[in-house]
């Protein structure tokens, strides 16, 4: 598959089928993501993957925390929408309006239900950084995540980058060997898309090119 195709077929998948992702696929995908450039080749990223019984335990624990309305405490603060630029806030509003059209007025409940089940992801890749990291490491980690998602797509494996995966980091530390001096930044779910699921019909529009691009010749 060409990069163009991987870029255009990737989308956030909020319900995966039960088809498993193999350890061989995961190793290959993470190794390809390692080609991502980093500041002075610093390679700050640390990668933890949960699958099989470990992921089942995390799924159960997450479900219990969601059900009991446990407070969210991600290592990277979620922040408030008002912290974002006016244009970014408008895009978020537009995205929400699109959700009503695709899923109906109870869209939030439908999405939350899938999130509580970790989107039925067959493996979750957790991206971590050692505490005190440079803002450049955060830049590098985002690029690493995108490389990982494209490498997965190239193999026909779909992905879901989500805050939902890392909103209870203390719980994750009980199941994964993430140390207390590492921050869990993002989780990326892996699996195969359930093509019939309504939550997978969500389309996220992009702004017109001239709204973000300035070329000065
Ligand atoms: C850092 C990050 C965190 C995200 N967290 C969530 C999340 O918690 N829940 C969710 O439904 N989508 C989440 N998403 C998915 C975005 O909503 C999605 O990528 C965006 O709407 C663009 O859609 P697309 O990925 O299908 O192109 C997240 C994406 C990123 C990059």
From TrEMBL:
Keywords from the named record: Flavoprotein, FMN, Oxidoreductase
Gene Ontology MF terms in the entry: oxidoreductase activity
Short name of any one Pfam family annotated for the protein: Nitroreductase
Annotated InterPro entries: Nitroreductase, Nitroreductase-like
Entries under SUPFAM superfamilies matching the protein: FMN-dependent nitroreductase-like (SSF55469)
Family per similarity comment: Belongs to the nitroreductase family.
Stored PANTHER family: NAD(P)H NITROREDUCTASE YDGI-RELATED, NITROREDUCTASE
Protein name: p-nitrobenzoate reductase
Species, as recorded: Secundilactobacillus similis DSM 23365 = JCM 2765
């Amino acid at each position: 598959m060409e990069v163009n195709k991987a870029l255009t077929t990737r989308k956030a998948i909020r319900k995966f089928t039960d088809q498993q992702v193999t350890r061989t696929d995961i190793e290959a995908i993470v190794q390809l993501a390692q080609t991502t450039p980093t500041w002075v080749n610093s390679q700050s990223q640390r990668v933890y993957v949960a699958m099989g019984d470990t992921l089942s335990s995390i799924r159960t624990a997450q479900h219990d925390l969601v059900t009991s309305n446990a407070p969210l405490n991600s290592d990277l603060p979620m922040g408030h929408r008002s912290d974002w630029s006016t244009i970014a806030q408008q895009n978020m509003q537009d995205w929400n309006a699109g959700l009503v059209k695709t899923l109906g007025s109870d869209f939030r409940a439908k999405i939350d239900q899938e999130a509580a089940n970790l989107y039925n992801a067959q493996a979750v890749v957790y991206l971590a950084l050692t505490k005190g990291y440079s803002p450049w490491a955060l830049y590098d980690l985002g690029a690493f995540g995108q490389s990982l998602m494209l490498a997965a797509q190239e193999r026909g494996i779909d992905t879901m980058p989500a805050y939902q995966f890392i909103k209870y980091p203390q719980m994750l530390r009980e199941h994964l060997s993430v140390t207390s001096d590492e921050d869990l930044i993002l989780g990326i779910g892996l699996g195969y898309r359930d093509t019939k699921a309504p939550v997978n019909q969500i389309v996220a529009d992009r702004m017109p090119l001239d709204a973000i691009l300035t070329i000065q010749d």
